[in-house]
Amino acid sequence: MSTWANLGLQDSASPLMEQLIFFHDHALLILVMITVLVGYLMFMLFFNNYINRFLLHGQLIAMIWTILPAIIQLIIALPPLRPLYSLDEINEPSVTLKSIGHQWSWSYEYSDFHNVEFDSYMVPTNELENDGFRLLDVDNRIVLPMNSQIRILVTAADVIHSWTIPALGVKVDGTPGRLNQTNFFMNRPGLFYGQCSEICGANHSFMPIVIESVPVNYFIKWISKNVNS
């Protein structure tokens, strides 16, 4: 999760988020180089006294400043194509989770298991434990296995919501009457926090998401306990 003075992206917890961070750094480096070059040229224009009375056209420089931006655009556009298509690639998921947005909470259903469903509400500030995070902790966390392909189905019961976990690179809109899906793969254990990123009403900022990534054997114990209960 983000902390104070964190100006960059969160540490990734999935391979796709790693690729998105790599692309961010790649594009930002090119933008910095362009900004420095253009800034230097503009700065020098104010202080040089070069005059050429016979300069009427410059075909060579015109070709350069036409072709060079096209090449730079290709350098920026080609690397993200693979992760972009990988975001929608769903290949034999191990677990399917259905998320339903409400005003203002989330409901979750584990579709692969019988009768495993629950609501998830934000923990009020006056009920937080000492190690809890204000506006981010919930009463019922999502528990999912690490190193497993996870499919999530997202919809909404009232207005448009958006199920977003920055550390996993996941952002899926939940629209009433529609079912959107995506996938993610968590490569380490931990707690991953997110929020609804669609302005969905007065308490939009009070419907956080918490995923607890655990080893597969812990997940099996957790799901067995909830199925039997």
UniProtKB/TrEMBL annotation:
The keyword Transcription regulation does not apply. Its cofactor is Cu cation. One of its GO terms (cellular component) is mitochondrial inner membrane. Residues 1-91 form the Cytochrome oxidase subunit II transmembrane region profile domain. It is found in: Mitochondrion inner membrane. Keywords: Copper, Electron transport, Magnesium, Membrane, Metal-binding, Mitochondrion, Mitochondrion inner membrane, Respiratory chain, Translocase, Transmembrane, Transmembrane helix, Transport. Residues 92-225 form the Cytochrome oxidase subunit II copper A binding domain. It catalyses: 4 Fe(II)-[cytochrome c] + O2 + 8 H(+)(in) = 4 Fe(III)-[cytochrome c] + 2 H2O + 4 H(+)(out). InterPro entries: CcO_II, CcO_II-like_C, CcO_II_C, Copper_CuA, Cupredoxin, Cyt_c_oxidase_su2_TM_dom, Cyt_c_oxidase_su2_TM_sf. GO terms for molecular function: copper ion binding; cytochrome-c oxidase activity. It holds the Pfam family COX2. One of its GO terms (biological process) is ATP synthesis coupled electron transport. Belongs to the cytochrome c oxidase subunit 2 family. This is Cytochrome c oxidase subunit 2. It comes from Drosophila ornatifrons. The gene is COII.
